[in-house]
Amino acid sequence: SEGSIFWATLIEIGGKTMKKIIIPVFLIVVGLSVYFLSQNKSQSDQNQRVFSFRLRTDPPTFDWSLATDAVSIDVIENIMDGLLQYDDNLEPIPAIAKSWDVSHDGKTFTFHLRNDVYWTDGKVVTAHDFEYSWKRFLNPKTAAEYAYFLYDVQGAEDYNQGVSKNADTVAAKALDDFTFEVKLRNPASFFLHIPVFMVAYPQRQDIIEKFGDQWTKPENIVTCGAYTLAQIDFKNKVVLKANPKYYEGKPALEEVHALIIKSDHTAVDLFETQKLDVLRDIPPLTLDQYKNDPRFFKSPFLRGYYYGFNIKKKPFDDVRVRRAFAHSIDKTVFPDILKGGQIPTNSWVPTGMMGHEPDVGLKFDLEKARKLLADAGYPEGKGLPHVEVHFDSRDLNKTVAEKLQQVWKQNLSVSVELQNSEWKVYLKQVHIDSPQVWRMGWGADFPDPDNFLRLFTTNSGNNFTRWGSKEFDQLILKAASSFNKEERLKSYKRAQQILLEEDTVIVPLFVESLNYMIHPRVEKYWLNAMEKVSLKKVRLKKL
Questions:
Q1: How far is residue 488 CA from its own chain's centroid?
Q2: In 10 A of CB 249, how many CB atoms?
Q3: Given this model, what pLDDT does residue 114 score?
Q4: For the whole model, what pTM was predicted?
Q5: Strand, coil or helix: what is 272?
Q6: Which of 46, 182, 295, 490 has the smallest C-beta neighbourhood within 10 Å, fewest atoms?
């Protein structure tokens, strides 16, 4: 061949010339092969340590004194630790606090901290960081909507409501660098769950005072959890990196990418192309095709889905109108149209939790609904003021809203206008000036009915109904102070009767279920009944 003649000619010219040409070329080829193989191996190894999951929208805040939404909390709970953490049975166990003591009257908790927990800048986490955080959280200037979570602490409510101007009246104090004492105004049977939740995480006074409202930027923030906040690329992703100083040891995942994906269908496509390791919020119409997929998992979920009324806005300032709208809904339709194993409910406290009362709440009664609307002066919906129903943009929420629009038109002859907006905008709206009718959900921050019912107390920052009841408030306080289960259940039942039947300020629709997909390479990923996952336990394996 021509090639053979060419090489033979070169050989004839001289062996030395050939050696000078072939050896360098050979070395270059080998070198490039080794380089590309090492690059591919390096990339493969890197991919084995990068885990990706979805955020439905841009996180509104990374300040754990201000966060109230699941999107922010998904990140915060993996960059921070508190005094305690949950085991797999949702029981509080040691974290930064290695142990604790409780007084005989159940009103004084003394937490003994580890001395080997470090902030990401190398400083030791101390009891003073907890004292500062709790008092900043309760400071009225902070405007924390979850402030009521600490109201059982002596002096907390008065300080938060401005009755007391002195933070030292709040009985949460560092006795020394590693001893944190909390005194309660009354015994609280669920109190050990509070130090697990993000509102009770420590904070660094020097960092917050130095950077002001910019303290949560990646270049400023200091944290003490399994991961660090490395990058925030709004509308794209949040990047977390393994914390080499973490007191339980550096986690296995080198990086965690929280991808901001607003469309449920886009999230499905990214999961199928292996750009997402976990898929939550599976669209209703997609669920059927996954139910027999080995990657599909389903588990109980302590999360209620409800519609609320602003009782200060017409026509919902009339309880008869609120009851009419509630009685007109047949909630059994939702599992059929959503296909996710949702459980219809009239009770606000969810199925699977102490305090769930299946016989409490307004049931579907079309005749009663129409009579109530007529009694309020709006027979067959005639003369009813214009009604807007608001929800945050998500496929499931749109499906529910459109069904309710149809139900109220068909059953009450009432036309409602649907309005939707993305989560951050929507959340701000319901806080500042909640619409006539609005959608919201509530997932357990701790597994106790107090977490669901204290939400609607008069001073709760998450009560968007503009409703308050002294009797309701007293019942919640009484139940919290009791260690007698039967007494607590009696108080919670009466509280739900006021909330759901007598005053009808919200309408529970269903209890959600957890439906999610996990890529086969993911190990030790498990969502508990509060939809919390500790990414420090997650591993990735080679397939």
A1: 27
A2: 11
A3: 98
A4: 0.80
A5: helix
A6: 46
- Does residue 343 contact residue 447 with C-beta atoms inside 8 Å? no
**CB atoms inside a 10 Å sphere around CB 16:** 8
Nearest CA to 178 out of 107, 98, 109, 122 is that of: 98
DSSP per-residue letters across 154-219:
TTHHHHHTTS---GGGSSEEEEETTEEEEEBSS--TTGGGGGGSGGG----HHHHHHHGGGTTSTT
**Residues 98, 221, 157, 476, Cα dihedral to 10°:** -70
What is d(CA 141, CA 377) in angstroms, rounded to the nearest whole number? 44
Place of tokens 């279920």: 513
The DSSP result for 377-443, as a single string, is T-GGGTTPPPEEEEEES-HHHHHHHHHHHHHHHHHH---EEEEEE-HHHHHHHHHHH--SEEEEEEE
Please tell me the distance from the alpha carbon of residue 424 to that of residue 402, in angstroms, as a whole number.
22
Residues 351 and 488 sit within 8 Å (Cβ to Cβ): no
Give the pLDDT score at 211.
Answer: 98
Question: 318 near 375, Cβ under 8 Å?
Answer: no
Task: Kindly give the pairing relationship between strand 514-518 and strand 539-540.
Answer: unpaired
β-pairing, 522-523 vs 539-540, is: antiparallel
Q: Read off φ and ψ for residue 279, nearest 5 degrees.
A: -120, 115
Q: Which two tokens stand for residue 35?
A: 């380089």
- Residue whose structure tokens are 């919640």: 476
Mean pLDDT for each 10-residue chunk of the chain (543 residues)? 40 47 52 50 59 94 94 95 94 97 96 98 98 98 95 97 96 98 94 96 98 97 98 94 96 96 93 95 83 89 95 98 98 92 94 92 98 98 97 92 98 97 92 96 92 94 95 95 93 98 98 92 90 91 85
pLDDT of residue 27: 53
Token digits of residue 266: 């886009």
Q: The tokens 């026509």 sit on which residue?
A: 315
| Region class of 143: left (phi > 0), else alpha (psi between -120 and 50), else beta | left
**Joined tokens for residue 134:** 């709790």
